[in-house]
Amino acid sequence: MNHLISIAGDAHPVPAQDGETILDALLRNGVGFAYSCQAGNCGACKCEYLAGEIVELEYSEQALSPAERARSVVLACRTQVRGDVHIRRLDTEEFVMHPSRVLQCRVGTLDALTHDVLRLRLTIESGGPFAFSPGQFAKLQFAFADAPRDYSMANAPHETGLEFHVRVLPGGVSERIREHLDVGDRVRVSGPFGVSYLRQKHRGPILAVAGSTGLAPIRSLVHAALRAGMPGPIHLYFGVREERDVYGEAELRQWMQAHPDLLRVHVVLSERAGEAGTRRTGLVTEAVAADLPDLTGFHAYLAGPPAMVDTAGELLRSRGMAARDIHADAFYRAVPAQPVPHVAV
Ligand code: FES
User: Fold this and answer.
1) Looking at ligand 1, which atom is closest to the CA of residue 38?
2) Whole-prediction pTM value?
């Protein structure tokens, strides 16, 4: 039985045999398509699945992350055709790859941003240069921890050194960071990781939603977007519980003054109004819903507690945003991390 593979933007569908992989069918028919290992290991053959009946074969998690999988990205070499199928080539920005590095760093400063948020600044001693895209994260290995922990870079790539925001939770590694980490201590950093990075070719509006220390990657990508002269506008929502949880606001306000037509910053308290009663209150997702009824042409970046990220994602999809335009990394999502076999009829 033969099926047809349609590629968005390509005039002629490509015939495929039942059970053939998308990549095999395209190559057999002389259609150019990026690939390398042909075995689900490298990720070079990623494309967006739009419609049709497919079965996905096993692949390496390094080739396709759960976050990409949640955005309907599939591996053409590991996706069998079981009916007529519609796919889209990924924009080249979807393939941003930086060399994977292991850096030896030392603590430059460690200071309190709020009662339970620390700002950790590291200087890179060896293993660099460390290239990353704003919004990505790294794994930090501390001498007193048995396993590395994921933290997003809060600095933009052009800023010297590395900055991370650490929320201190009782009994965790973060508490030991506060109690035992000193200026000059060694920290090993590996990365970068993550697919929720700034797409700089985007010419439309940007929605950036941060909850708590989710402000770290949002700070990085908003700073980079302003520096790159992206046309925006950029709507930044920062949701925290109460006034004492707000941090980084002075800098955001400076950016807003420097770019009054470009950047709008909204701080939203979920539990208590500010002392003068001047803050917006409620869930940050409610503020987004009230302010932005039309999200046509937006790109969104979400970072914060998994419940907030999931609620925001649902809201944006219900307002018509395509999944490919909503970016959130796996450790900010509550959804299970394993890929689920995708059979669509
Ligand atoms: S070609 Fe390497 S994962 Fe498909």
Assistant:
1) 1
2) 0.75
Pocket around ligand 1: residues whose beta carbon is below 6 Å from it?
Answer: 35-38, 40-45, 63, 75, 77
Q: How far is CA 224 from the centre of its chain?
A: 14
Identify the structural domains of the chain with CATH numbers, from first to last: 2-90 (3.10.20.30), 101-193 (2.40.30.10), 206-332 (3.40.50.80)
C-beta of residue 77 within 8 angstroms of C-beta of residue 37: yes
Kindly give the distance from the C-alpha atom of residue 261 to the centroid of ligand 1, in angstroms, as a whole number.
43
pLDDT digits (tens, 9 = 90+) for 43-95: 778 899 999 999 999 998 777 888 788 888 999 999 999 999 999 988 667 66
Work out the mean pLDDT of the chain and round it to a whole number: 89
CA 16 to ligand 1 centroid distance, Å: 18
Can you say whether the dihedral through the CA atoms of 281, 118, 68, 295 is positive or negative?
A: positive
What is the predicted pLDDT for the residue at 273?
58
d(CA 79, CA 81): 7
